[in-house]
Design a protein that fits this description.
Elements lengths: L2 H6 L9 H6 L4 E2 L3 H23 L4 H8 L2 E2 L4 E2 L3 E3 L5 E3 L4 E2 L3 E4 L4 E3 L4 E2 L4 E3 L1 E2 L4 H5 L2 E4 L2 E3 L4 E2 L4 E2 L4 E2 L4 E2 L4 E2 L7 E4 L4 E5 L10
Parallel strand pairs: 2-5, 3-6, 4-7, 5-8, 6-9, 7-10, 8-13, 9-14, 10-15, 13-16, 14-17, 15-18, 17-19
Antiparallel strand pairs: 1-12, 11-12, 19-20
Helix pairs in contact: 3-4
């Protein structure tokens, strides 16, 4: 049995909606009315945040928290932000999210406290079957992403589905992270690999 068959399960005996399958982390097809409505609502909230931020960045943070209710009140988010839903994103205290974040939150995206999220970072939870036919049939799924406390994601970094980045670690600009990153390291490259270890209280890394 392949991963696609295992996640799809019985099929005929599964009475869940595709929205319910998505929320459970199983394969689903994104033609569910509840999914479409949630995505439309996110589009409106993204537009409101961008408009409010351009009028007043500080006041725009209220709209940012409407878009991403899981954002701590002390986090600061720069516009624009691109999300699937926004409701599956958690942002910790005092974290800075720079402009152009793409956070495809089909599964949960958790960003810790005191993080620095560089411009045009991509946090991508969606996955698709490797097998050609289920992709043709439009099945998809998602795996959660976790960014630990005090992590720095350099500009343009890409975090792939199911990846966790340990606390205090640094992801270099442009890196593509396909596997979990331990705490207290610097990773760089495509795919990203550990290039340096960090000591608490040591010199700042420059990825």
């Amino acid at each position: 049995m392949n991963d696609y068959q295992a996640s799809l399960g019985d099929g005929a005996g599964d009475t869940r909606s595709h929205h319910e399958r998505m929320m459970a982390g199983d394969l689903y097809i994104a033609d569910d009315p509840a999914i479409a409505e949630a995505q439309r609502a996110a589009v409106h909230r993204m537009a409101r945040f961008a408009d409010e931020y351009h009028r007043d960045p500080e006041r725009g943070q209220e709209a940012a928290r409407e878009l991403m209710p899981g954002a701590d009140p002390t986090a600061f988010v720069r516009a624009p932000v691109y999300v699937d839903y926004g409701t599956n994103i958690r942002i910790g205290a005092r974290t800075l999210v720079n402009m152009g974040l793409t956070a495809l939150d089909v599964a949960t995206i958790t960003i810790g406290a005191d993080c620095q999220i560089g411009p045009h970072v991509q946090l991508l939870t969606p996955t698709h079957p490797l097998e050609p036919q289920p992709r043709r049939d439009k099945w998809e799924a998602a795996r959660p992403i976790v960014i630990g406390d005090n992590v720095w994601l350099g500009g343009g970094a890409i975090i792939c589905p199911g990846v966790s980045v340990g606390e205090n670690s640094v992801v270099a600009a442009g890196a593509v992270v396909t596997k979990d990153v331990p705490a207290n390291v610097v990773v760089a490259g495509v795919p990203a690999k550990v290039i340096r270890t960090l000591e608490e209280g040591g010199e700042s890394a420059a990825p």
